[in-house]
Amino acid sequence: MDLLANLSLFVRIVEKGGLAAAGRDFGYSPASVSERVSALEDHYGARLLNRTTRAISLTDEGRLLLDGARQLVGEASDLQSQIRHGVDHLSGLIRISATFDLGRNRLAPILDQFMEMHPAIRIDLVLSDGYVDIVAQGIDLAVRYGTLTDSSLMRRRLGPSYRLACASPEYLARYGTPETPADLANHNCLVMRFGNQLDQEWPFVIDGKRKMIPVRGNKSANDGSLIRQWVLGGYGIGMKAHWDIENDVREGRIIPVLTDFSPPESDLQIVYPAGSNQPKRVRCLIEVLSAAFANGVMPQCPSNPQH
User: How far is CA 156 from the centre of its chain?
Assistant: First the structure.
């Protein structure tokens, strides 16, 4: 049995959520995939996957193997790259998760430059404004807003993040500028949807206390970049992270409102799975992202990047 090949297949099965999809990536028939999974289970003496006709799920033993398998496969890929191309050569796939606006407007240009410096790198950018289980989906790193609540993940702070109520000059000229959060009741508010939940209460600081103000409007979406486009189009007032609208504000396309009542800052951060040795290509990208967000400079990858 080719243990490393079967471990690679096992990781892909989890990432793809199914045996057939993983098999297509490797050019294996469904029967061959099943045989290889069975061979792994025989090798470790434990059931790794619970399989039904519609879905798969990891057993406790499978979760334990997944972390180790990813590390082994990543190290083998790095070693092969170093032998073929030298120790400073970076190659292989990096899977990244980010919100829509942040991914398109901030990360994509940085990733383009990173790939120009390291042509053998491949990027899979997974955009979502909802919750993403980065471990279950095989994500190497995610760039996210807010406080880290999952204690099994590591974090690298990129900088502060502010949420701002904002609108276009055209909208404010037509409907007026709200003076207090209570005035939002008389405005069309563009609302984000996270899963089945509408973000219909916006945070503000009033008389020194954080309060949630009800808002409503005629447009909602689960895509933050669409909310931004609606704000730019003059359709209403949105609540956006300053990273997403910084250039629009600088160039006068969007105007922050109610800034005296803005909630306290939170964090923009990189999060990544703990307890595993990240491949050099991932460690390098973490360093590059940190430097780019800190000062807007795209650095060369450090020769020996650390966590």
Answer: 13
